[in-house]
Amino acid sequence: MVADENDKITEFQEKPEHPKSNLASMGIYIFNWDVLKKYLEEDEADPQSENDFGNNIIPNLLRDGRQMYAYHFSGYWKDVGTISSLWEANMEVLDPEHSGINLFDDDWKIYSRNSGMTGHKIAAGAIVENSMITDGCRIQGTVKHSVLYSGVKVEDGAVVEDAVVMGGCVIKSGAVVRHCIIAEKAVIGENAVVGAAPEGAEKGVATIGPGVYIGDGAKVGPNAMVRENVEGGEEVC
């Protein structure tokens, strides 16, 4: 966003190599509905349009001299356009003192969808440290510095560490899941290994796709992106 001394937007650059301004768009806009509707309808009728706010709608508003102003936001915001940044954002939720995002701040409540599941249960002998455990989770193994979405099951002897595990996943007995993102309803088989702590400057995050089954004893490397089932004992780098 290029703005003048009154914060009136004079130019919008979509991912420029050499930007004229240090104001980055957060992708959050407030419009008068009648104006927005007019430009959306015109854009939809244009076969040459990419139907994109940054490439089409905002430039068209500027072309017609519409008044738009920038709001300087100073709170927490993160672009989660990459696998690594999505993982980082979830980890930052666990460290509100340093990250600036606090899901439990009563003065700035963040509401989420209720899963309708029962409360989570942590079995005798289970270990949970510095983690966010949501509705319906059943924890028998070890969970450290991780975010578990609703309905996740961590069986006895399984280890989940520095991981984001989305809804309905099952981490079976003896499996080890580290520094990774596990998408919805995936199953990690017994004694399987997914991901690993990064070494040196490495930032790779292992990713398991939704509904994928990782077979018993399989190994998935720290940079792997798995979209299909993995057979038992198989190794994926």
Set down the secondary structure blueprint.
Layout: E1 2-3, E2 9-11, H1 33-44, H2 53-63, H3 83-93, H4 96-99, E3 121-122, E4 127-129, E5 132-133, E6 138-139, E7 142-144, E8 147-148, E9 153-154, E10 159-161, E11 164-165, E12 170-171, E13 176-178, E14 180-182, E15 187-188, E16 193-194, E17 206-208, E18 213-214, E19 219-220, E20 225-226, E21 235-236
Parallel strand pairs: 3-6, 4-7, 5-8, 6-9, 7-10, 8-11, 9-12, 10-13, 11-14, 12-15, 13-16, 14-17, 15-18, 16-19, 17-20, 19-21
Antiparallel strand pairs: 1-2
Explained architecture:
With 237 residues, the chain is of the alpha/beta class. The chain contains four helices and 21 strands. The chain has helices at residues 33-44, 53-63, 83-93, 96-99; strands at 2-3, 9-11, 121-122, 127-129, 132-133, 138-139, 142-144, 147-148, 153-154, 159-161, 164-165, 170-171, 176-178, 180-182, 187-188, 193-194, 206-208, 213-214, 219-220, 225-226, 235-236. Strands 4-7-10-13-16-19-21 form a seven-stranded parallel β-sheet, with no helix packed on it. The chain has a six-stranded parallel β-sheet with strand order 3-6-9-12-15-18, with no helix packed on it. The longest helix has 12 residues, at 33-44. It is elongated and about 65 Å long.
Give a brief description.
16% of the residues lie in helices and 21% in strands. The chain has helices at residues 33-44, 53-63, 83-93, 96-99, and strands at 2-3, 9-11, 121-122, 127-129, 132-133, 138-139, 142-144, 147-148, 153-154, 159-161, 164-165, 170-171, 176-178, 180-182, 187-188, 193-194, 206-208, 213-214, 219-220, 225-226, 235-236.
